[in-house]
């Protein structure tokens, strides 16, 4: 069952400029959906470098395996993405399909197959028919252009209720470069699973190992700090392409190059922007929740505590019910397994401190806290009181709509 | 908001015989509820030994701290339990309350305070007034009797929709002994948290260290194999008392004593019976789900995979929707972080194998699998195909009612 209405937390798609060295087009291949574009083909200029991060699942999809293998070369000339079928848990047939997809994309791009990157999202366990791509790709390749990016964002959607894009301009050495990104989020089409896909492209000139270091670092505070329901897809894929085609671009080959600082910050901003849009489009979401943890024994410990809070069904249903239920936050801190001392713990909803040093805050006003919970965007802060470790993660509330969307209710 | 209807998965309360050396009564102390008994006082014969296991939360309630300290003595003469207030996150006031409760119970039982065991469930962060116990306990102590156990099971309920009890008779050496247990489960009263409490008593004669070994072992496959929503209370408490008053009982002092085998099996059966009743009364539950994992690299690995499946909101919503969605089981196996090989994985719903060696089973009938999902009790089996490790865990489905109960929906 698809959720028809657009998320109340949706944000408008930004104006996205072209990225020099990137051209793309979309097509309707009829993989699962009728009357919508479900294929996204991007071609990259010669010399484009690539970095990627993928699902931690021990049962990854065939395209994830393909991308991991291709990443070793560090060079990218084509990206082929489809929605409607995840090509996951498809055995040898799935591997054959990726091989045929890559050969086909390599042919239209004029490159080697290991310069092709693949991603698929949709039904699991159904064979993905490579002939669908053979039918549309040669024609699609004749239409590639520098925009509009919203078309690409739409082609990769499954049950996302709005297309997701982010863009930044930043100086890198002597060049002014663009970073564009699109993402699809935790959508679900029964009997399938949520998958996060994101593709980011820049016209900066950055060697592949440096690009990988930037992406691996950037993902920690963004895509790896967002959770909808604690479930992890077999297909999660984030790819970053750098064409080097910005006017005046000089290639960065040293990850410690001081010229990278502003670029890294802009990349992080694009990734965080996209990741929060994913949380805004969580299934059934009506509230965006930011969990801030301070005072943990380390940043890693803070992150685990923050995820324990953000993944707690009891915290998330309380948010859905606009209930300032700090007892459930105490519970989630306690179950995280990280160092915590009940008698040093403080909790706030927004600016209202509800608990202090292991007890209800004497100054706490239930009315003020309850009024705050009516906001569409909620910040929950837990101060552990033990150290200097901090973390921020984002999630959404757990509503009856989440159950309806994912339960495919037949009653 | 309380759920009014009794769980469709409820089972009848068993006929429970007396346990020699155990006498108890219940009282209405008005801690939170009106017109219902919310206090349970049990008195144990001199010489009663005790064992316990508690929440792993780093923010445990004051009564949990009290019990942990008292367990060191190994001797129990009284148990005092209340519903309506958890005495959790109550700071120094909470500690003072447990001290006063224990002094009071010690007085009516004629024992030392460290022979008193305490448990509380209900509101978190609200001071628990010890005067409520002072008002009722002396009179309650005059009414203690050997039954009925259902009264005790009812007095400890919060949003449980049915009282939970289990009983077994078993031979231990020359004596015929009884094991009686009661439990309360994952109930929730906004703004409070779910808590599991269980109390088991036997008239066997077993030294405290042996009793602790039996309980710690027994809990692994029972209460530690049940999950409602992955959240862990600050107050979870399981206590086992052995009075030694069965006719002809000889004290067992060696954990390797071969006479213990049948007793251990009967104890495990009582614990499992109670634990499954907790899953049957999960908030909003309409289906009981048993997850079986076979072929993992170890039993511990199998347990982690089984819990990953049982805690997955996507698996649980699929069950609610009667959807034979094996892709979500693949996802949950993959995210468990345990050794798994996509191409050796097999999954079955009941007797219907839906996936085999990393692909949809060619013989799989969607109709048969879908029909199976309409049952009230569902078995999901995942064979990892790597080793001999096995595990079983139990959970319930994730329904709109769960969200309604825990979200205290105001709209």
TrEMBL record, chains A, B:
Its EC number is 2.3.1.35, 2.3.1.1. Pathway: Amino-acid biosynthesis; L-arginine biosynthesis; L-ornithine and N-acetyl-L-glutamate from L-glutamate and N(2)-acetyl-L-ornithine (cyclic): step 1/1; Amino-acid biosynthesis; L-arginine biosynthesis; N(2)-acetyl-L-ornithine from L-glutamate: step 1/4. GO terms for molecular function: L-glutamate N-acetyltransferase activity; L-glutamate N-acetyltransferase activity, acting on acetyl-L-ornithine as donor. One of its GO terms (biological process) is L-arginine biosynthetic process. One of its GO terms (cellular component) is cytoplasm. It is found in: Cytoplasm. Keywords: Acyltransferase, Amino-acid biosynthesis, Arginine biosynthesis, Autocatalytic cleavage, Cytoplasm, Multifunctional enzyme, Transferase. Substrate binds at residues 158, 184, 195, 283, 406, 411. The record marks 194-195 as: Cleavage. The active site is at residue 195. It catalyses: N(2)-acetyl-L-ornithine + L-glutamate = N-acetyl-L-glutamate + L-ornithine; L-glutamate + acetyl-CoA = N-acetyl-L-glutamate + CoA + H(+). It is an enzyme of class 2 (transferase). The keyword Acyltransferase applies. InterPro entries: Arg_biosynth_ArgJ, ArgJ-like_dom_sf, ArgJ_beta_C. Pfam families: ArgJ. The record marks 121-122 as: Involved in the stabilization of negative charge on the oxyanion by the formation of the oxyanion hole. Catalyzes two activities which are involved in the cyclic version of arginine biosynthesis: the synthesis of N-acetylglutamate from glutamate and acetyl-CoA as the acetyl donor, and of ornithine by transacetylation between N(2)-acetylornithine and glutamate. PANTHER family: ARGININE BIOSYNTHESIS BIFUNCTIONAL PROTEIN ARGJ, ARGININE BIOSYNTHESIS BIFUNCTIONAL PROTEIN ARGJ, MITOCHONDRIAL. Belongs to the ArgJ family. This is Arginine biosynthesis bifunctional protein ArgJ. The gene is argJ.
